[in-house]
């Protein structure tokens, strides 16, 4: 595929220093009805975000056991100009476990079949090809704009067989750009050295100042796309910020998001919003600061 530019994020999040990052919608809990997140509510949340101008959405094959990807795929039929980031490699379904075993991964951990249990992983090329095909089918796409290895370890990121397998998928057009999504500092830094223009989802929330600084000064920073995750910290950060700052939840979200932008200067910032009410309230508050004219674009691997 030809090189593709960093997608126009549609909406941006402002830091207090004047830095800006594109706003992307995270969908980790979208459609997880066993957690009280209804499928219809998830569909309305996507529509609300896209109607308001969000043009980047992040999902994964394990989110709600594939329901999230299906919801995103249906929403894409109603909305044009949306860039999808999806991920694979975690094993949370019987089909994934069986495919991992067929791909030569031995007997991977079945822990991911249980709620809140650590999932096994498989990043062997045959497995990733199977996973990519599944995501294409659920999303209703011919090519995945961005595909990320979901929480690989350091050895996986440096494995030439894994890299070669992903490069083949990119050259064939099954994926546009690729990279990693990780909560680990060393993995995020190592991913900067992947070929082309790697996409890296890394933690940019409270307590991640050291990683943010290392990523910012990395020699290949301008050749990568940094997607900030975890901007709101743990589940209690929003409530704590609201209490300390005597502000509402939306104001607390905006405050934490602005700090994340200033901390790490990401190209995109993902915020998870699983109900239409949360989407409208948070986006309205985030967009309270006027947008500057024009946004710089970056070339990405494609």
From TrEMBL:
Q: Which Pfam families match?
A: Aldo_ket_red
Q: Which Gene3D superfamilies match?
A: NADP-dependent oxidoreductase domain
* Domain NADP-dependent oxidoreductase span(s) in chain numbering: 23-184
Q: Which PANTHER family match?
A: D-THREO-ALDOSE 1-DEHYDROGENASE, NADP-DEPENDENT OXIDOREDUCTASE DOMAIN-CONTAINING PROTEIN
Descriptive protein name: Aldo/keto reductase
